[in-house]
Design brief:
- The chain is an alpha/beta fold and about 325 residues long.
- The chain has a domain of about 210 residues: NAD(P)-binding Rossmann-like Domain (Rossmann fold, 3-Layer(aba) Sandwich).
- Helix content is about 40%, strand content about 20%.
- The protein has eleven helices and 13 strands.
- The strands form four sheets. A seven-stranded parallel beta sheet has the order 3-2-1-4-5-6-11, with helices on both faces.
- Helix 6 links the parallel strand 5 and strand 6.
């Protein structure tokens, strides 16, 4: 039996695939290597895995229902970890249609094929963006959602609803993880910590939207992977879990830490707030802690130091 990881060559996916292979698990990495960012980056993420006998790479798109059926009929897939998605709040405002096609219809395709082929477990990578604008902190899985402020957030919430429906109809064990601002080695190049590190290192102006006091719950990649791994041997009907660090960090502080570890000062360029952005994200992780034993270990100072070290060694290339 195998675990299928969609988006397995991406940032989070490639780290998960590595962890699964380290555990001796037969792992199928499915990715369409789209051009949201340089596809060679994703190919490079998994190039060192190709000699592992438990690794199988499939170039396929989750929008292609027939191709998915072919994959599931040929492979003995027991668990699906669904991380493939069109990412990015701001990009979704410019091109909302593709977010519906990939994040909603693509997820529905997977759920239908899972139901048809009797897959036992479905793990979905959702987002803290589903919480929208709320004054209640920290964000709890019990909070009422339903007011997303970007097409990206709307697509992620819609996919969660389909996950619940298929869990109910087909007795599929489903776990939805709401990720909070994941960072670390191999982070996508357009994401803030990666972009800021590159710009500071190259002496370019760092674009800061708003006054720099926005706060995020930055979560290091190894903690996210441990959270995902924790459900592989647990059984649920349908559950939603926050995976965050449960600490709000101001953008100013993040930039200051990057400056310290890069060894250069940032040239800040002030820009107006962007539509679709929220002021604060903050995870209540009490449920994840109680039911999964989830305990994030990497604080922001250590995480930024590790990221900058990776960037200087490999990421800048």
């Amino acid at each position: 039996m195998a675990i299928l990881v969609t988006g397995g060559a991406g940032f989070i996916g490639s780290h998960l695939v590595e962890r699964l292979l380290e555990s001796g698990i037969r792992t199928i990495c499915l990715d369409n290597f789209n051009d949201f960012y340089d596809p060679n980056i994703k190919r490079n993420n998994v190039k060192n895995l190709t000699d592992n006998k438990n690794f199988h790479l499939i170039d396929a798109d989750i929008r292609d229902r027939n191709r998915l059926e072919d994959v599931f009929n040929k492979e003995e897939i027991e668990t699906v970890v669904h991380l493939a998605a069109m990412p990015g709040v701001r990009a979704s405002i410019k091109k909302p249609k593709i977010y519906e096609e990939v994040n909603i219809t693509g997820t529905l395709n997977l759920l239908e094929v899972c139901a048809k082929t009797k897959v036992k477990k479905f793990i979905y990578g959702s987002s803290s963006s589903v919480y929208g604008l709320t004054s209640k902190l920290p964000f709890s899985e019990e909070d009422r959602v339903g007011k997303p402020i970007s097409p990206y957030a709307a697509s992620k919430e819609s996919a969660e609803l389909f996950c619940y429906t298929f869990s109910h109809l087909y007795d599929l064990s489903v776990c939805c993880f709401r990720f909070f601002t994941v960072y670390g080695p191999r982070q996508r190049p357009e994401m803030a910590i990666h972009k800021f590190t590159r710009y500071i290192d190259e002496g370019l102006e760092v674009p800061v939207y708003g006054d720099g006091t926005s706060k995020r719950d930055y979560t290091y990649i190894s903690d996210i992977i441990s959270g995902i791994e924790s459900v592989l041997n647990r059984e649920f009907g349908f559950e939603i879990f926050n995976l965050g660090n449960s600490e709000c960090i101001e953008l100013h502080r993040v930039i200051s830490l990057i400056e310290r570890f890069v060894g250069k000062k940032a040239r800040i360029k002030r820009l107006s707030d962007q539509p679709g952005d929220v002021r604060v994200t903050y995870a209540d992780i009490s449920k994840s802690s109680e039911l999964l034993g989830y305990k994030p270990k990497v604080k922001i100072e250590e995480g930024i130091e590790k990221f900058v070290a990776w960037f200087k060694n490999a990421g800048s290339k």
